[in-house]
Amino acid sequence: MALTLMKGSEAIAEAAIRAGARFFFGYPITPQTEIPEYMSARMPEVGGCFLQAESEVAAINMVYGAASTGARVITSSSSPGVSLKQEGISYCAGSRLPCVILNVMRGGPGLGSIQASQGDYFQGVKGGGNGDYHLLTYAPSSIQEAIDLMMIAYDKAEKYRMPVLFLADGIIAQMMEPVEMPDMVDFKVDPEKKPWACTGWKPGDDPEKRAVINSLFINTEDLTVHNAVLQEVYAEARANEQRWENYKTDDAEIVVTAFGTVARIVKTVVDELREQGVKVGLFRPIAVWPYPYKALAETALRDSVKAVLDVEVNEGQMLEDVKLALEGGKPTHFFGHCGSQFPTTDEIKEKILAIKEGM
Amino acid sequence: MAVVFEKTPHLTDKPFHYCPGCNHGIIHRLVAEVLDELDLDGDIVGVAPVGCSVFAYDYFNCDMIEAAHGRAPAVATGVKRAKPDTLVFTYQGDGDLASIGTAEIVHAAHRGEKISTVFVNNAIYGMTGGQMAPTTLVGQKTTTSPNGRDEAWCGAPIKMCEMLAAVPDSYYIERCAVNNNANIIKTKRAIKKAFQYQLEGKGFCMVEVLSTCPTNWGLSPVEAMKWLEENMIPYYPLGVYKDKGAAK
């Protein structure tokens, strides 16, 4: 199949449509505005619906409503806008509604910057909204990977009945790369497969089949049961949905952990330092929830590994998961910026060489 | 034996949790009777609010969605856009619709969203135990306005019908009450009209229903109805505020 040069935001939007998304609700915010712009033109071509909401709060609640019918629905925003969506995301998780949410991360906190960042890792994987819930969370490091993950996102969301979050940074959305775009999926709502959805019910029908999309369980016993169901789902996702990449880690003395765009910078560093004889490798989570703790432990707790370095464009948010995986088993270092400044290969190399010096 | 009165099919068998004298029971019944009469073969989705009627999803016998506080019009928008042939209604109180949910209701009206809203205004936050609402009357005592609502401090009560009638693409806006049999019949007629306009593909419709809250007003059900007539109706006049479908 031919490769096409596409901008990340447009490629991700097109992939969502190819994956069966027919409803987009959003609100403009830099650096993801090209996604609603693309959707506004493209959705009508495929018989879908683009609607610009009055706020991110309204947009996620429109997602909640449309997803309640079993349709494939998507919204996108960037960090401050995703903060506004947290209420609705918690409701989607609590009501077990499959949907896809894109966060094209920019610098924070508050209004922050409009440049790329990785500052919403905590928000994405450690909560964000209220209550005990998780989102299946993908952190693509290339446009092609974002497309490929989008093509499985709805199947996963529907299998587990949970929202899927894409933690992409502004660079993924703004850059252009040659990509292979998959064929259109033929998706239709199947009431048999989605007995929970609002697909039509009338008095006299089986009362068990009346759809009630709800996250309220006023009796503590009922809420306990509901949470137990959620936790079972999360346990199943933890068992089946971990995704990661090992890059030149087999004989590594120093393992670098990184996700998203930063991992690509680290890959260049690994290649260049390897040419100088430095045994360094990269461990890259592709899904940051569920986090690949076991795979990281197996990679980094080997005898050959002397130290671990985590690199992020924040003040060390994924670092907490790296440390949980290693349980103090290896010296763990961190290098990062939190002002939307991406580290250069030279900066990372310097850090790795300093660690090697001290080993 | 002839049946003279029976439970209406669009209400479930679940007993209402509402306080004695509360008007939600009457208004639920009216909505359900209208749903029966429209005979829609199941293509109905109701959206419940947060507030006293939060459990409406347990009472209305159709597909139901429980929305976050104030967000029902946005949720209903999502449903309606995904399934345009479905009758979609929201059932919201005054704290939900007229305070935390003003953006959602105003913009649903502005988009001419083809949904119908039943707005129950009892001038107080009932579920949380009687706090001041944006609809609380000047001088009305609540747990957060212990000396009575002070207009100089918190402004005058919000008039949603007047506000939404001014929105270009709202289609039908009426304020009703269920304080006597005549008004109950008028309220049912208004709800039916709002739902029928939606089925005809017209724009946004809202029926406000003035309601009592004897528990939090500290009055008996009879006294509460009298208070509504003497205080609420003069400030919130009943009537049709907009009807684009009315014969010219």
Brief characterization of the structure:
The complex is a heterodimer of chains A (359) and B (248). By secondary structure, chain A is an alpha/beta fold. Chain A is built from twelve helices and 15 strands.
Overview of this protein structure:
The complex is a heterodimer of chains A (359) and B (248). The mean pLDDT of chain A is 97. Chain A has twelve helices and 15 strands. The relative contact order of chain A is 0.13. In chain A, helix 2 links the parallel strand 2 (23-26) and strand 3. The longest helix of chain A has 21 residues, at 220-240. Chain A folds into two domains: 4-179, Thiamin diphosphate (ThDP)-binding fold, Pyr/PP domains (Rossmann fold, 3-Layer(aba) Sandwich), CATH 3.40.50; 246-358, 3-Layer(aba) Sandwich (Rossmann fold), CATH 3.40.50. Chain A is an alpha/beta fold. The N and C termini of chain A lie far apart (48 Å). The mean pLDDT of chain B is 97. In chain B, helix 2 links the parallel strand 1 (44-48) and strand 2. Helix content of chain B is 38%, strand content 17%. With 248 residues, chain B is α/β, with parallel strands linked by helices. Chain B has helices at 24-38, 56-59, 72-82, 94-100, 102-110, 151-154, 160-165, 181-199, 214-217, 221-235, and strands spanning 44-48, 63-66, 87-93, 116-121, 170-177, 204-210, 239-243. The interface between A and B is large, with 42 and 38 residues.
